[in-house]
């Protein structure tokens, strides 16, 4: 294989149908490349399993190039956005099993063989995801308040602290007490969210809380994903919104609908995409 020939980038697994095929004719993926379906040649059913694919340049997506690109945040953001847009577009019209970012094969033939080799695993997981959608639930705490400036003793109706050190400790105690109240609300909210979710789904993934730029000035203390049957999605969201009103000092955020990234997971028997027999050299 020459370095001029494109590699096959795989976004997800779906079932090949005429409506999905028509949708993909207008879709563009990584590098604005056209997106299509690569069906499992061993699947003779009316809606065979298929990879959602597009061609990508060999020199930009081979194993060596990817190691460098994963250190380039701008490149990574562009590819991740294109990958996500394709998966979300497919998810709006069909059950989709997202694959991890930068899953690349040497060519369509290698990709098709990998799909056939994992047919049973992919088919089983797609069946489990049918008519389900992922929703995210996060709990944020407000930024810690600055210590309040104490009132003048005459205004406060109390004796002034005898030293600046005592005044500082009083302010810190008040701040600490307020923070404990907020954490207590967050714990109660988390328990309430779990109880609500238990009525609608049995699948949850607990992600690590976000930090830094992803959470902003607020503190993210809960970052869960739930797989919700589509028929219960509105009730789930409404119940969470109603419960959140009982916790005024924290912020409960519900996001979605999303493609089921948190519930896809690589199949246990799947070949490692770094395997040089399947992935681009």
Number of structurally distinct domains: 2
By DSSP, the count of extended strands is 8
Any idea what the radius of gyration is?
25 Å
* CATH topology category name of the largest domain: Alpha-Beta Plaits
Structure at a glance:
This protein is α+β, with helices and mostly antiparallel strands and 281 residues long. The protein contains nine helices and eight strands. Helix 8 (164-200) packs antiparallel against helix 9.
Describe the overall structure:
The chain is an alpha+beta fold and 281 residues long. It folds into two domains: 7-130; 133-260, 2-Layer Sandwich (Alpha-Beta Plaits). Helices cover 40% and strands 22% of the residues. The chain has nine helices and eight strands. It has helices at residues 18-24, 58-61, 63-69, 73-91, 108-117, 119-129, 153-156, 164-200, 233-244, and strands spanning 7-15, 36-39, 49-56, 97-105, 132-141, 204-206, 219-229, 251-258. The strands form two sheets. A four-stranded antiparallel sheet has the order 2-3-1-4, with helices on both faces. The longest helix has 37 residues, at 164-200.
Walk me through the topology:
Blueprint: E1 7-15, H1 18-24, E2 36-39, E3 49-56, H2 58-61, H3 63-69, H4 73-91, E4 97-105, H5 108-117, H6 119-129, E5 132-141, H7 153-156, H8 164-200, E6 204-206, E7 219-229, H9 233-244, E8 251-258
Antiparallel strand pairs: 1-3, 1-4, 2-3, 5-7, 5-8, 6-7
